């Protein structure tokens, strides 16, 4: 949906649905002013602060997901907003937590515990690293019988190649790793990127500062592509590792990439988790399935008007789900 169309639709009157609801905002990285990575998986710190200020003005200062769910269980009406950050990047601790604290806000941080432990960069950072440091100006690659051709002369072309390749890496871990190694050889890129996830000593202060710590598996796989036994190891292993390193027993989990199966839900219950969040669009209402909770992406682009400025009206419409129906119709038609 174009920015202009969303801008125009944001002027339409909206009626809040009846009954209580919890909007869980889904974030990842928080970038310093002027930081322009090839793969921008998150929002700038200025946008995050504008979002928090808008919520404060509306009376919706964010809480943790666990706090929001506890409120929902006894609520009769109204709305709350919970913030969540996936993966556990260092910039979450350096930039997001101070911004939250200055406003009396809290959030939940879901940690990819095994990657933090091994200091391994997530697969999307490994992909971006290969394209940023490619030795040539063209990519001509065939994997699993599929030809991939892309220009890499400019930063814009490398971003386009990244968008082309991202879906191809959404695969089982073994295939994912093999494809990344093939791509590294094809592009003459030695080595791996430094891990930008926080270290354990940087994460120890989250809970004492009023934040919630949640699990995000060990290695961030697409769970539905794994056997039930491996799913159990990924989920239970992350809960146990976080408990050992931080002294925190997680209550919630975020499915990597929003991908899960019945075996994922079973593993969550087996390891004592109380809830799990997805990437499904929507708000949490009373009676929602506790291990299939929806969240809302609140992207930088989703908050900006047609001229690139932060728009409180557009950001509010996004958070209220004003465009959900239009997006579902577009997805069904595609």
Describe this structure in words.
The protein contains 13 helices and 11 strands. It has 334 residues and is an alpha/beta fold. The radius of gyration is 20 Å and the shape is globular. The mean pLDDT is 93. It folds into 2 domains: 254 residues, TIM Barrel (Alpha-Beta Barrel); 65 residues. Helices cover 41% and strands 15% of the residues.
Shape: globular
Using only CA atoms, what is the Rg? 20 Å
N- to C-terminal distance: 12 Å
Under CATH, the topology of the largest domain can be stated as: TIM Barrel
Strand adjacency order, main sheet: 8-5-4-1-11
Total domain count: 2
Number of contiguous helices: 13
Q: Count every beta strand, where a strand is a DSSP E run of 2 or more residues.
A: 11
> Could you name the CATH class of the largest domain?
Alpha Beta
Average pLDDT number = 93
Broad structural category: alpha/beta
CATH architecture of the largest domain: Alpha-Beta Barrel
Helix content: 40-55%
Question: Topology, pairings included?
Answer:
Elements: H1 3-9, E1 21-27, E2 29-31, E3 42-44, H2 45-58, H3 65-74, E4 79-87, H4 90-102, E5 108-111, H5 113-118, H6 123-132, E6 138-143, E7 146-151, H7 155-165, H8 173-187, H9 200-203, E8 212-215, H10 228-246, E9 252-254, H11 262-270, E10 275-277, E11 296-297, H12 312-319, H13 324-333
Parallel strand pairs: 1-4, 1-11, 2-3, 4-5, 5-8, 9-10
Antiparallel strand pairs: 6-7
């Amino acid at each position: 949906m174009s920015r202009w169309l969303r801008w125009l639709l944001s002027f339409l009157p909206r009626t809040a649905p009846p009954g209580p609801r919890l909007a869980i905002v889904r974030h990842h990285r928080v970038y310093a002013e002027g930081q322009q990575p090839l793969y921008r998986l998150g929002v700038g710190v200025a946008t995050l602060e504008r979002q928090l200020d808008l919520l404060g003005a509306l009376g919706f200062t964010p809480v943790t997901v666990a706090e929001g769910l506890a409120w929902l269980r006894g609520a009769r009406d109204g709305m709350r907003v919970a913030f969540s950050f996936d993966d556990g990047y260092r910039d979450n601790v350096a930039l997001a937590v101070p911004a939250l604290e200055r406003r009396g806000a809290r959030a939940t941080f879901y940690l990819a515990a095994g990657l933090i432990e091994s200091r391994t960069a997530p697969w999307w950072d490994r992909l971006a690293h290969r394209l940023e440091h490619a030795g040539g100006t063209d990519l001509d690659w065939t994997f699993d019988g599929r030809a991939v051709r892309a220009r890499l002369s400019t930063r814009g072309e490398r971003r386009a190649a990244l968008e082309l390749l991202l879906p191809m890496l959404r695969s089982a871990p073994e295939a994912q790793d093999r494809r990344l190694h093939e791509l590294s050889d094809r592009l003459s890129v030695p080595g791996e990127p430094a891990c930008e996830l926080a270290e354990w000593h940087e994460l120890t202060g989250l809970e004492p500062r009023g934040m919630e710590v949640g699990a995000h598996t060990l290695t961030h796989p697409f769970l539905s592509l794994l056997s039930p036994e491996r799913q159990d190891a990924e989920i239970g292993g992350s809960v146990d590792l976080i408990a050992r390193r931080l002294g925190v027993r997680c209550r919630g989990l975020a499915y990597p990439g929003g991908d899960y199966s019945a075996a994922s839900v079973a593993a969550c219950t087996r390891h004592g988790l109380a809830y799990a969040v997805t990437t499904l669009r929507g708000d949490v209402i009373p009676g929602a399935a506790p291990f299939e909770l929806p969240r809302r992406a609140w992207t930088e682009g989703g908050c900006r008007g047609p001229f690139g400025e932060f728009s409180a009206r557009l950001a509010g419409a996004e958070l209220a789900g004003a465009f959900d129906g239009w997006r579902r119709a577009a997805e069904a038609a595609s």
